[in-house]
Amino acid sequence: MVPFGGWDMPVQYAGIAAEHMAVRTAAGLFDVSHMGEVEIAGSGALAAVQRISCNDAARLEIGQAQYSALTSDAGTFIDDLLVYRLADDHYLLVTNAANTDRDVAWIRKEIAAVDDAFAVNTSSRYALLALQGPRAQDILQPLTAEPLADLRYYHFVSGEVAGIRVTISRTGYTGEDGFELFAPPQMADRLWTALLDAGSAAGIQPAGLGARDTLRLEAAMRLHGSDIDETTTVLEAGLGWIVGWDKPDFNGRQALVEQKRAGAPRRLVGFEMLERGIARHGYDVYVDGAAAGRVTSGTQTPFLNKAVGMAYVPAGAVDVDREIEIDVRGRRLRARRVRMPFYKRPRS
């Protein structure tokens, strides 16, 4: 157990590798109740969400979610988040735990000029459990009357699981199919136990922060504070697909449009090590013998059994298969630029 974002969080239960493999081959259960929840409501709710986030929330149906970012005037990340459309005038934003209080203050300031829109920090109303892995649907379905096969990726529905009123969202942060379940905090223990009992024969494992990090890295999912922050733009992070380019205005639009036209000066790229060694966060990257950037995330992945990572490099050094060097504890080791994600789940 470690302190994390104001919470006591489990790093591991049985071990990071075992939990990682369970998610890739069967299922893992994460308690991610530390994530922040912010609700924006009122007749101006959509206008408020459109102003503060770079993706186009107008495209969302009720019962649909999208990945987005709170962007600064420079087009950099205040935070990344999921936006859920609960109703025509009601949205739920799920933010990173360590950023929630700051995000709420920033959101309230940014939407102050929007008529009839208000933001409320509702994090204390929700516990959040993530059931992830190829057996997730098989485990969850007997506990709910909701037809999970009909629930599309990045959509959600309200219903009951094990007799507990929850919101079931087909989302996750592991690269696998799965569900995130929003439940009343007082029912979290009961829900956790019901899911573990239902999945025991399928090989479910409780999983902690360690496996959550190695899984998201295999899937090349960015981590705020490591891969993205207020110094990195959405385009530099390779996330131009979350920008609603047709939106007339949002924070950072002008900066991102100009950078798209001129080209980002650097890009976040994936690499795998060619020599024995693990490139960790903060290690220096060299291109053609010259210092060119730093590793943002890196690990030895249990499923792929490779040392992989992500780093920002100059725009001219992003070619796939190009060799780079990374300083690993005083030794420059060879690595190769590869496409991301490193892992993509099989599609049935």
Q: How would you sum up this structure, described in words?
A:
By secondary structure, the chain is α+β, with helices and mostly antiparallel strands. The protein has 3 domains: 125 residues, Gyrase A, domain 2 (2-Layer Sandwich), CATH 3.30.1360; 89 residues, Aminomethyltransferase beta-barrel domains (Alpha-Beta Plaits); 74 residues, Elongation Factor Tu (Ef-tu), domain 3 (Beta Barrel). The chain has 7 helices and 19 strands. The strands form 4 sheets. It has a 6-stranded mixed sheet with strand order 10-11-12-9-3-13. A hairpin with a 2-residue loop joins β6 and β7. It is globular and about 60 Å long. The mean pLDDT is 97.
CATH topology annotation of the largest domain:
Gyrase A, domain 2
Which range best describes the helical content: under 10%, 10-25%, 25-40%, 40-55%, 55-70% or over 70%? 10-25%
N-to-C span: 36 Å
Instruction: Compute the number of strand runs.
Output: 19
> If you compute it from the alpha carbons, what radius of gyration comes out, rounded to the nearest whole angstrom?
20 Å
Question: What does the average pLDDT come to?
Answer: 97
Structural class designation: alpha+beta
Count of domains: 3
Q: Helix and strand string, N-terminal first? A: EEHEEHEEEHEEHEEEHEHHEEEEEE
Please give the count of helices: 7
Tell me the name of the CATH homologous superfamily of the largest domain. Probable tRNA modification gtpase trme, domain 1
Q: Main β-sheet: number of strands, strand sense, barrel status?
A: 6 strands, mixed
Q: Which strands sit side by side, in order, in the main sheet?
A: 10-11-12-9-3-13
CATH architecture of the largest domain: 2-Layer Sandwich
CATH class of the largest domain: Alpha Beta
Shape: globular
Strand content: 25-35%
